[in-house]
From TrEMBL:
Transmembrane segments annotated in the record for this chain: none
UniProt KW keywords: S-adenosyl-L-methionine, Transferase, tRNA processing
PANTHER family reported for this sequence: TRNA-URIDINE AMINOCARBOXYPROPYLTRANSFERASE, TRNA-URIDINE AMINOCARBOXYPROPYLTRANSFERASE 2
Pfam families, per database record: DTW
Top-level EC class: transferase
Region (Disordered): 1-42
SMART domains documented for this protein: DTW
Keyword presence, Transferase: yes
The DTW domain, residue ranges: 49-246
Protein's UniProt name: tRNA-uridine aminocarboxypropyltransferase
Organism of origin: Billgrantia aerodenitrificans
Superkingdom as given in the UniProt entry: Bacteria
């Protein structure tokens, strides 16, 4: 949920190298028939020259795998991810599942709701909240605050933060075009925290990326340890990826990385 335009993050802002592995138009031939084919459009063509780690999908120069740590939380996170978002190596939603293995990830298709998601929404063990700003009057009656999350916990149910994972425009579309979300309470994230995300250009420093939103929700709802681990893991991702784009090898682990390494010994 970063930029208003949906433009800045379509490219994986890897440094330009002057060469590309994408075939030029008119020079691409089917290997079986020899006939020319329309050129394939590589989604992340500009980043494709970079060798990536199969474990964390980051450039191998600064791999994230050594810092992967699991944490436990009372609240859960379910992601409804726009299909275009899955393809982006800069997506931070996946970091949440690395840290919290119970995290569910659903791909959003406007006309075909995910059956498993619909079943989980009806599961009485869970109390789902849609995380969305409260800036429009037409759903004001559904808006709740963090105190309700505490009440849910006290009643023995598991609060679930449903995050709409995409650009701001995509998230708004998911919110507006998914009838099964219409009956859920809307929980706006109230925070003065500014984004630390370096990999995409936010429309505003107040627009947090998906992993930052999850960490802040966990912190505010009482899962401090999980929030700290996720925050540190996001920080390690952010710093590692940013350094690799500058072809810079991180020689020393950052403070966040050292905290994650310390967690692994616990
Ligand atoms: Zn890795």
């Amino acid at each position: 949920m970063l930029d208003e335009t949906g433009q800045a993050d379509l490219a994986d802002h890897a440094p330009e190298t002057g060469h590309s592995q994408t075939p030029e138009a008119g020079h691409y031939h089917d290997p079986a028939t020899g006939h020319s084919r329309p050129p394939r459009r590589e989604f992340k063509a500009r980043g494709s020259f970079t060798e990536r780690c199969p474990g964390c999908n980051l450039p191998v120069l600064n791999c994230l795998c050594p810092y992967r740590v699991n944490a436990e939380s009372e609240a859960r996170v379910w992601l409804i991810t726009h299909p275009l978002e899955h393809l982006k190596p800069t997506n931070t939603g996946r970091l949440i599942r690395d840290v919290l293995p119970d995290t569910e990830v659903f791909t959003w298709y406007r006309t075909v709701p995910d059956e498993r998601l619909l079943a989980l929404l009806d599961d009485p063990r869970f109390a789902p909240f849609v995380i969305f700003p409260d800036d429009q009057p037409d759903y004001a009656d559904r808006v709740v605050d963090m105190a309700v999350v505490g009440e849910v916990k006290a009643s023995g149910r598991t609060p679930v933060f449903i995050l709409l994972d995409g650009t701001w425009r995509q998230a708004r579309r998911i919110f507006r075009k998914s009838p099964y979300l219409d009956r859920l309470p809307v929980l706006p994230l109230a925070t003065t925290r500014l984004t630390r995300y370096r990999l995409r250009k936010p429309a505003s420093q107040a627009h947090l990326c998906t992993a930052e939103v999850a960490a802040e929700l966990l912190r505010q709802s009482g899962d401090e340890h999980a929030a700290q681990v996720l925050d540190d893991y996001f920080d390690a991702f952010n710093v590692s990826y940013d350094a690799s784009r500058r072809y810079e090898k991180l020689e020393q682990p950052t403070a966040a990385m050292r905290r994650l390494l310390a967690c692994q010994g616990e």
